[in-house]
Amino acid sequence: MTTSEPSSGYVGRFAPSPTGPLHFGSLLAAAASYLEAKAAHGRWLVRIEDIDPPREPPGADTEILRALEHYGFAWDGPVLYQSREAARHRALVEALVSRGAAYACGCSRRALAGARRGPLGIIYPGTCRNGTRARRTAIRVRTTDAPITFDDRLQGRQTQRLESESGDFVILRRDGLIAYQLAVVADDAAQGVTEVVRGIDLLDSTPRQIHLQRLLGLRTPAYAHFPIAVNARGEKLGKSTGAPAVSLGDPRPLLLALLRALGQSVPADLGSASLASIWAFATRHWDPGGLAGRRQVLWMPEKIGYR
Ligand code: GLU
Fold it and tell me: What is the Cα–Cα distance from 178 to 122, expressed in whole angstroms?
């Protein structure tokens, strides 16, 4: 479904990885970015981040799009498939390598098993910074310890020192696939995205993305990281925690639950309104301020709580 409403300069997006059907957690991220964009009279794009074929069941992309339509989301313009942008992604990697900003790394997972770990995972110790003889290589981008700081609209000021917190990170994998950090930066820029609204699980990837934007001379969008939906055990709802696909029955009860999970007050009689009226109401009254500093929304069908 597409719309062609007049638009402010705001461009938002929802960028699912088609690793399975849409579940409540991903629908929550979609709704947050949609309402932000609609309330700002902006455009809202959908991008399928299909850059990891081994993890993508066939047809997951169409299932996601069908579910979005079923819940009344209307996106602007054609859906962008990242897999079709591989040549452009690679050109950016090559540009970084030719400037010496990125380099080939021959370290296998096993070779890095003993490396120090931090909250972001393994901290790359810089083994291949000065060259490698390995034949199969990944490409890593150089980092420094200059602090990278940004102001997240919901989570406040964030700072990371990449060299000591992640080390030089992978932008092209050893198997030849583009890494998420590079692809997301390339396509947010190519699509003119001005506001990145997504789940808080990606908050700590943002400084790596800002680092790449700076190296590539790309504009840094504004960021708002929303709480993610978790189950009673505090686990992120997702494929690995067995979150069920959202139902394709009457979308309204779940949509209302979604709005409540996003901290919106929803009049009891809204449930009998049309899908379009529910979205219109939600857009008009959208106020995510109550979610500031929240990291998790506890999602159980009959109960919503925050942490
Ligand atoms: N494709 C990522 C995911 O599904 C989201 C990327 C983003 O919003 O930056 O988790």
Answer: 19
Pocket of ligand 1, beta carbon within 6 A: 15-17, 49, 184, 198, 202
CA 297 to each of CA 41, 196, 204, 254, 271: distance values in angstroms, whole numbers, following the listed order: 27, 20, 18, 15, 22
Q: Find out whether 261 and 283 touch, Cβ atoms under 8 Å.
A: no
Report the C-alpha gap between 187 and 117 in whole angstroms. 29
- Write out the two tokens for 27: 């629908």
Dist. CA 15 → ligand 1 center (Å):
5
Q: What number does the ligand 1 atom closest to the CA of 19 have? A: 4
pLDDT one-digit tens code per residue, 55-74: 999 999 999 999 999 999 99
User: Which atom number of ligand 1 is nearest to the Cα of residue 26?
Assistant: 4
Whole-number Å distance between alpha carbons of 201 and 235: 11
On whether the CB atoms of residues 56 and 18 are closer than 8 A, the answer is yes
- Ligand 1 centre and the CA of 66: distance in Å? 18
* Model pLDDT for residues 214-273, shown as the tens digit of each residue: 999 999 999 999 999 998 888 988 777 878 888 899 999 999 999 999 999 999 899 999
Give residue-wise pLDDT tens across range 271-296: 999 999 999 999 999 999 999 999 99
Would you tell me the crossing angle of helices 252-261 and 275-285 to the nearest 10 degrees?
A: 10
